[in-house]
Design brief:
81 residues, mainly alpha, rod-shaped
Length: 81
């Protein structure tokens, strides 16, 4: 059976504890947030790069097929095949 979570009690600070710098906490928060945003942006850019690749490939193949059919049509017209 699950045990209840332990409550976090306020611990009195002792003289040996290092001082807490609120600016360092804020800086760490901003750094982790920036890292999370960068990771999401990288994932989004990677996905769109795949979409762009397949789109350019499809357009390239379509242009190649169009040129091939036009070229074959001209060859048939010129040589009377």
């Amino acid at each position: 059976m699950a045990q209840p979570a332990r409550s976090i009690e306020a611990r009195p600070t002792s003289p040996e504890d290092p001082p807490v710098d609120p600016l360092a906490i804020e800086h760490a928060y901003r750094q982790h947030r920036a890292r999370r945003v960068a990771r999401a942006r990288h994932h989004r850019e990677k996905r769109w790069a795949g979409v762009r690749f397949w789109l350019v490939l499809a357009v390239g193949i379509a242009v190649a097929v169009l040129l091939a059919t036009r070229t074959l049509g001209e060859i048939e017209r010129v040589f009377g095949l």
